[in-house]
Task: structure prediction
Amino acid sequence: LRQVAAALPEDCRSSIIIIGSLAAGYHYFRDDPESLVQTKDVDCMLSPHIKAVPVGKAVAESLFKAQWRLREDAAWGEPGSASTPPENLPLVRLHPPGRSEWFIELMVSPPSAAERNTELRTDPANPTKQYVRLETEQGHFSLCSFSYLSLVEEQPILTEFGIAIARPEMMALSNMLHHPFIGTET
Result:
């Protein structure tokens, strides 16, 4: 988390809530120097949804100006265009300058009923996953969202590094509601 916060431009830190394994690991192991959580992807939620697209654009532009670069990917390594449907656009997955062992992925919380609009596209293969277009100077991207992800916005914890993490109990609740049944998937 220290590395992520140090790599992020200061103007981006207040717009991001770190979620997922890095947030949980920091919460539970921050005082134990022997414990370590390693991850290659750092899930960063832009919040609240109603401001996520303009905030996402500002954060993405700031990262590109700070020399962050797209994660290399044969299928998703280039931005799309205005004619590319949101579900076919690459997600904002960026490596910090000079590093390739980890990357951030920008995400959004799902919209409330009052915020829903025609720009939001649901993934036909996964109805709990939604996409919204993010237009930047570099091209078009998507920000993805999952059902119940808005729960992780509830009272995030500000760390000593100037970046917030989601509360583990809210991440667990979001995950349990998103996956109400135990299936065969490993």
